[in-house]
Specification:
The chain has 481 residues and is of the alpha/beta class. Helix content is 30%, strand content 26%. The protein has three domains: 91 residues, NAD(P)-binding Rossmann-like Domain (Rossmann fold, 3-Layer(aba) Sandwich), CATH 3.40.50; 207 residues, UDP-N-acetylmuramoyl-L-alanine:D-glutamate ligase (3-Layer(aba) Sandwich), CATH 3.40.1190; 143 residues, Mur ligase, C-terminal domain (Protein-Tyrosine Phosphatase, Chain A). The chain is built from 14 helices and 23 strands.
Length: 481
């Protein structure tokens, strides 16, 4: 294990290995905002993070090399969890005696040690829920800090330094670093936890749902008795991990048994409306400018945890009405030739299903195309072939890309997009495995009817597909913002 990093006041220069990821880049910008010199390296840097780093004055060197640590020698090196053990820059830092630290431990020491950490966890909804909580606390005058796994439009970025007593952070169960194989969310000293869901994911490091649940149990066991756990108790897989909790648990959801409950749901083109009940008593009415039942659940979680932090539900409801969303979560990238092009991060069957259902409500008169790239370490494998087919069948037509870097996986483990397409067709839908971005764009351009939604789902760049699609349809080639 690495030694404890030096105190923040003793640092002048911090270097980040793999700086261009959302979490690492945000932390780099936060340290730059504290007046430190920050440098970083990565194999590539792309918007919006490359723009955020440039605006913070952070120098990025492409490629990983020991020379990046020499001019000048940093006081501390932060090693991202995407960095492998054989990374030459990381090896040079460790073998050369430079102080080094993982991303989660750097966050804890520099930004959480003197604040109330609100840790948002779960298989789905972390980024949106973290953004919602941070926005509610901001509008309530609490001036929170925040570290978000996406660009929150209300803040114009993925982080907020803040000066208040709370710090809201997205916490996941993925490995901390190659030298620390514990889950990242164990490191944040959580005092309030939101648990949105608990499903199988991260197939490269977990072999079963039970292993993932064990990680959540240990997280909840570490929340002090004076803290609070807000959990989506409608799900049996969530209820199963609550037995380890020493802190009070407040359930939320749609089931009458939940302490916090969303009722009287209405969905329309403008978003969702619902009533919040606490222990059966009306607490607020919410007009939420987000689509889908899953986002109602995310908003309800935010109301519940903020109530525990002293924000009245009516105050939360007023803030929710002003929420501007998160980039790459049902983000409208543009419209051309009657086709609304939407970019979304969905990469798990549950998220795919809920996103399709949400857009059905938002665009009830449109033909819905679902374009999916299997890109994560779980979606690239066969675990969810049948589940993906079932989830995608909710669209009018499904276009499947090849598995991202499929050649890196044994053929017997790799997801078969053609089998997913067969499953969609067996359920009565239309589906094709077209493989390339170019083939997908050509099919949609040829087949659109002038009143369509193209829902593009990937957790990566997907070959610039939405830009290419808009260009071929005759629309703006760049983000309309």
């Amino acid at each position: 294990m690495p030694p404890e990093p030096p105190p923040l006041e003793g640092l002048r220069h911090v270097h980040f290995i793999a700086v261009a990821g959302t979490g690492m880049g945000s932390l780099a910008c936060m340290l730059a905002g504290r007046g430190l010199r920050v440098t970083g390296s990565d194999t590539g840097a792309y918007p919006p993070m490359s723009e955020q780093l440039a605006a913070a004055g952070i120098e990025i060197r492409l490629g990983h090399s020991p020379e990046n640590l020499l001019d000048p020698r940093p006081d501390l090196v932060v090693v991202g969890n995407a960095v492998r053990r054989d990374n030459p820059e990381a090896r040079a830092a460790i073998d050369g005696g430079l102080p080094y630290v993982s991303f989660p431990d750097a966050v804890r020491q520099f930004f959480l040690s003197d604040r109330h950490p609100v840790v948002v966890t779960g298989t789905h909804g972390k980024t949106t829920t973290t953004s919602l909580i941070a926005w509610i606390l901001t509008r309530a005058g609490r001036d929170p800090g925040a570290l978000i796994g996406g660009v929150a439009r209300n803040f114009g970025g993925s982080f907020r330094l803040g000066g208040g007593d709370c710090f809201v952070i997205e916490g996941d169960e993925y490995d901390t670093a190659f030298f620390d194989k514990t889950p990242k969310f164990w490191h944040y000293a959580a005092e309030s936890v939101v648990l949105t869901s608990c499903e199988f994911d991260h197939a490269d490091i977990y072999s079963s749902l039970e292993q993932i649940q064990a990680a959540f149990r240990k997280l909840l066991a570490g929340v002090p008795p004076g803290g609070r756990i807000v959990a989506a108790t409608d799900a049996a897989s969530v209820r199963a991990v609550l037995d380890s909790a020493a802190a009070p648990v407040e359930g939320y959801g749609f089931d009458p048994a939940a302490l916090w409950r969303a009722t009287e749901l209405e969905f329309g083109p403008g978003g969702a409306r619902f009533r919040v009940l606490r222990d059966g008593v009306g607490a607020a009415r919410v007009d939420l400018p987000l689509h889908g039942r899953h986002n109602v659940s995310n908003a309800l979680a935010a109301v519940a945890v903020c109530a525990g932090l002293g924000v009245e539900p009516e105050t939360s409801a007023a803030a929710l009405a002003e929420f501007a969303g998160v980039k790459r979560r049902q983000e409208v990238r543009g419209e051309a030739a009657g086709v609304v092009v939407i970019d979304d991060f969905a990469h798990h069957p549950t998220a795919v299903r809920e996103t399709i259902a949400a857009l059905r409500c938002a665009y009830p008169e449109h033909r819905l195309w679902a374009i999916f790239e299997p890109r994560t370490n779980t979606s690239r494998r066969r675990y969810f072939e049948a589940e993906f087919a079932e989830a995608l069948a909710g669209a009018d037509e499904v276009l499947l890309a090849d598995v991202y870097r499929g050649e890196d996986l044994p053929a017997g483990e790799r997801l078969r997009p053609e089998r997913v397409a067969q499953g969609v067709r067996a359920a009565g839908g239309e589906a094709s495995h077209l493989g390339t971005v170019e083939a997908i764009v050509e099919r949609l351009v040829r087949g659109h009817r002038g009143r369509d939604v193209a829902l593009i789902m990937s957790n990566g760049a997907f070959g610039g597909i939405w830009q290419k699609l808009l260009a071929e349809l005759g629309g703006p080639p760049d983000d309309p913002e």
